[in-house]
Amino acid sequence: MAEAQVINWTCGEHAFRLRIGEAEALDDLTPQGIADFRFRCRQGIERGSLGFSPVRVREVIDCIRLGLIGGGMEGDAARALALRAMEEADFAELVKICYGIVTGFFSGKDHDQPEKPVAAEMTDENG
Known about the structure:
Blueprint: E1 5-9, E2 12-16, H1 20-29, H2 34-46, H3 57-70, H4 75-88, H5 91-106
Antiparallel strand pairs: 1-2
């Protein structure tokens, strides 16, 4: 699980992150779980715009809300902001944020990234 990512969007600049509890809640709120939700968010690209992604409005609101809670916002404030975002922001922008939130959850932490092996120096014998 990655650290919170600060996103500058229609409703301001806020930290978003899914922790285990928020990911489980979102998993329960989506028909096939968060991996499928992430896949469906991305499908909008093939349809011409993220605004055409086959996701439900409720899923987007819940993902934004839970991402804000994971980023440190209180639950009531996160819900109010997610609902405000639905009214003010472009749907494609919200889907992109959802895609980033869920992708961030599936990504490892910086200290979990595998190291690149050091390449051997080229010599006349092995070059």
